[in-house]
Amino acid sequence: MTIHSVRDGISVAWVNLTGGGLSGGSKKYLSAMLPLLAADKRIKAITLYSPAEVAPVIDSLSLSSFYWPAHEQLRGFPTLRRQLREHQPDVVYVPTSRWVDTGDAPLVVMLRNMEPLTRPWAEGKNGLYEGLKNITRRQASRRACRRASGVIAVSEYVADFLRREWHVDAAKIRMIYHGLSHRAIAPTRPTAITGDTPFLFTAGSIRPFRGLEDVIQAAAILRTRFPAHRFVIGGAVEGRLEGYQRRLAAMSRKLGVADRIVWAGKLSTPEMTWCYQQCAAFVMTSRVEACPNTALEAMEQGAACVSTSNPPMPEFFRDSVGYYPAGYATELAERLIDLLEDERLRNRYRQIALERARSFTWQRTARATADFLVSVAGSV
Question: Is residue 186 part of a domain?
Answer without folding.
Answer: no
